[in-house]
Amino acid sequence: MALAPKPKDFPRIRGALKFYQVASIITGVLLLLLCIEMLLKYSPLGLEVELGGRNGLLALVPDGTVTAVNLSTGILIVHGWFYVVYLFSDFRLWSLMRWPFLRFVLIALGGVIPFLSFFLEGRIAREVKTYLATREAELAKNDIVEASH
């Protein structure tokens, strides 16, 4: 028998879901930016993104010639740190929902496989909201039945 979330945790689950949704979207966008940056840098083009250099506010410069802020490295670092936040949001939702460990791993992959975080965010949000609505309706029905006896 699978473990079910505790009714007293339903408000915390809603908060964890909102946190997960925001973290998922931000991580997904950063991952897409990182993919674009990697394609630019490691393709035959060999370009990096420079911010505020002599070539203007935002410029593509040959790899290794960045003289101002290296936005390519910045995207890499920000995505890495935000992935940690994403994992925390994943862990929080996973533990409150009492899902199996493989579910945690699947959600964690959303931060490293392009577009997966967007797909999972929508699917998991629907699933959790449906589950909470169904369980709350069942609990309310049981409370009414018990109160009438």
Structural notes for this entry:
The chain crosses the membrane at residues 20-40, 68-89, 101-120. Keywords: Cell membrane, Membrane, Transmembrane, Transmembrane helix. This is Integral membrane protein. It is a multi-pass membrane protein. With 149 residues, the chain is mostly helical. It has one domain. Helix content is 68%, strand content 11%. The chain is built from four helices and three strands, in the order αβββααα. A three-stranded antiparallel sheet has the order 2-1-3. Strand 1 and strand 2 (56-62) form a beta hairpin. The two termini are 30 Å apart. The model has no long low-confidence stretch (mean pLDDT 91).
Low-confidence stretches: none
- Helical run tally: 4
* Rg of Cα set: 22 Å
Count of separate structural domains: 1
The helix content is 55-70%
Mean pLDDT: 91
Count of strand segments: 3
β-strand amount: 5-15%
Spatial sequence of strands, sheet with the most strands: 2-1-3
The span between the termini is 30 Å
Q: What does the overall shape look like?
A: elongated
Largest β-sheet summary: 3 strands, antiparallel
The helix/strand class is mainly alpha
Could you spell the SSE succession in H and E letters?
HEEEHHH
Transmembrane segments: 20-40, 68-89, 101-120
Pfam families: DUF3817 (PF12823)
Keywords: Cell membrane, Membrane, Transmembrane, Transmembrane helix
Domain DUF3817: 17-126
